[in-house]
Amino acid sequence: MKLPVKNILLVSLLGLFASLASAADLAGKWKADIETPRGVQKYEFTFTATGDQVTGTAHVETAQRTRDTELTDVKVTGDTVTFAEVLNFQGNEFRITYSGKIGAKEIAFHRQMGDFGSAHFTATRVE
């Protein structure tokens, strides 16, 4: 079955707008408490959307210290966000990757720390 060109264009535009809407929906602050072998880490993620470009930072509090980090490779596809965080630990860099499903008030995340382990957690929007 062949679709008219105008239908194909309309479907393509709707898909593009859905992607952009999700990037805009991600913008703002999100908080999460992540259970790790070293204790609870309190994260505050901040995402900014400018057109189809998304950037992010994280403020992290642990029992021992706080740190701020830039999130890299931030991508939004539909209702999924992916990004990475580089953690410097005792002179070594570890790449932590995140994948999450964006909802209206929360993001359900999967966090992978190289070969060391993974965690599932939920970040909630800060009002």
Characteristics of this structure?
single chain, alpha+beta, Lipocalin, 8-stranded antiparallel beta barrel, 63% strand
Bin the helical content: 10-25%
- CATH architectural label: Beta Barrel
Query: By CATH's scheme, which homologous superfamily applies?
Result: Quinohemoprotein amine dehydrogenase alpha subunit, domain 2
- The structure class reads alpha+beta
Just give the CATH class.
Mainly Beta
Q: What is the count of β-strands?
A: 8
Total domains, how many? 1
Summarize the structure.
This protein is 17% helix and 63% strand. With 127 residues, the chain is α+β, with helices and mostly antiparallel strands.
Plain-language structure description:
By secondary structure, this protein is an alpha+beta fold. The protein has a single domain (5-125), classed as Lipocalin (Beta Barrel), CATH 2.40.128. 17% of the residues lie in helices and 63% in strands. The chain contains 1 helix and 8 strands; from the N terminus they run H-E-E-E-E-E-E-E-E. It has an 8-stranded antiparallel barrel. Strand 1 and strand 2 (39-50) form a beta hairpin. The chain starts with a helix and ends with a strand.
What topology emerges from the helices and strands here?
Layout: H1 5-26, E1 28-36, E2 39-50, E3 53-61, E4 66-77, E5 80-89, E6 92-102, E7 106-113, E8 117-125
Antiparallel strand pairs: 1-2, 1-8, 2-3, 3-4, 4-5, 5-6, 6-7, 7-8
